[in-house]
Design a protein that fits this description.
With 322 residues, the chain is an alpha/beta fold. It has eleven helices and eight strands. Helix content is 45%, strand content 11%. Helix 10 packs across helix 11.
């Protein structure tokens, strides 16, 4: 376990780092470290690809991913970071991976040349209902009668690698920052701590995190670059401190209370519906907490509505509550 050389010092947000710094070959070790911890295997990045190429045209922003890279196996890795709620985000994940498969399959090429796609999504809102903060999605084929798992034949395994179709299909990872409670259990959690706080833990051993702490130090930015960085943060309409501290206070407080209430109701009634209702109550409580905190920090009703994806009239109703 290494002690941090930069205790308490603010680092550049991972969002900015992906778009501006991690594309540089000298910083590939940072990216490789994170992906190795996430995938639980050694990852070597051989190229950063043009993420803009999978947009239909210059005005198409629906699939301009934050970072697109290729590993030493020729596999493609999408990394996206999203701050604001999008109800159809699962469909966006599907669209991005599917379009990438088509983009990198040359016309008239055999289907066997399709490369494995990994789609990594770091989200700062609750994407669905779940208690964990890291989810992995793989395509499995299960027997409807015998409940067995369809596997690849020997010839398929020899030619394409893997043992099941899931090894060939796109694979999804969702890191839900809202659900991370700052309890570090493994090296991946050390990375997630950085994503949440823009700081490294006081002690860490995760691959790539030492280089991140050194290369992504905000104090090392050139004055003109630092000014541009701070403008980007203010473009959110919310300061980084408010985003990282107050937002998560509201998320954690509301969701935790609702979750506990749901568990109690479920225990008393002996039904799963009680727990589900508690989760829904928690989601509402966290929403109201975020609205009040944003309004307290001077944000307009319209801007809060834009960020949270709800109607201004609902914002006003929340603010009028005693």
């Amino acid at each position: 376990m290494s002690a941090s050389k930069f205790p308490g010092r603010t680092l550049i947000s991972f969002d900015w780092a992906m778009k501006r710094l991690l594309k540089q070959k000298a910083n590939h070790g940072i990216l490789e470290g994170f992906l190795s911890e996430l995938f639980r295997k050694d990852v070597r990045v051989t190229a950063i690809l043009d993420a803009e190429s999978i947009a239909e045209n210059e005005d198409d922003k629906t699939n301009r991913v934050d970072l697109l890279c290729k590993n030493d196996q020729g596999e493609l890795i999408i990394i996206e970071l999203q701050y604001y709620q999008e109800t159809d985000y699962f469909q966006r994940m599907l669209f991005g991976a599917s379009k990438l498969v088509l983009e990198y399959l040359h016309k008239r090429s055999p289907y066997g040349e399709i490369k494995k796609v990994y789609a990594v999504h770091i989200v700062y809102f609750n994407l669905g209902v779940g208690e964990d903060y890291v989810y992995r999605g793989r395509q499995q084929f299960m027997g409807m009668h015998l409940n067995d798992t369809l596997k690849l034949k020997y010839a398929q395994r020899r030619k394409f690698g893997g043992t099941v179709p899931a090894d060939l299909f796109p694979e999804y990872y969702v890191i839900n920052i809202c659900n991370f409670r700052d309890k570090i259990n493994d090296t991946l959690d050390e990375w997630i701590y950085y994503f949440k706080h823009s700081k490294v833990p006081h002690e860490y051993r995760a691959l790539g995190l030492e280089q991140a702490a050194e290369q992504l130090n905000i104090d090392h930015m050139k004055p003109e670059v630092k000014e541009e960085y701070m403008k980007q943060l203010s473009g959110f309409g919310i300061s980084e401190k408010l985003l990282m501290d107050n937002w998560f206070d509201g998320e954690s407080e509301g969701e935790h209370k609702g979750f506990i209430r749901g568990k109690e109701e479920g225990r008393q009634e002996g039904r799963e519906e009680g727990r589900e209702e508690g989760l829904m109550t928690g989601a509402r409580m966290q929403l109201e907490a975020n609205v009040c905190r944003m309004h307290k920090h001077g944000m307009s009703t319209v801007r809060i509505a834009e960020i949270l994806g709800i109607e201004p009239s609902e914002i006003e109703a929340i603010l009028k509550k005693p």
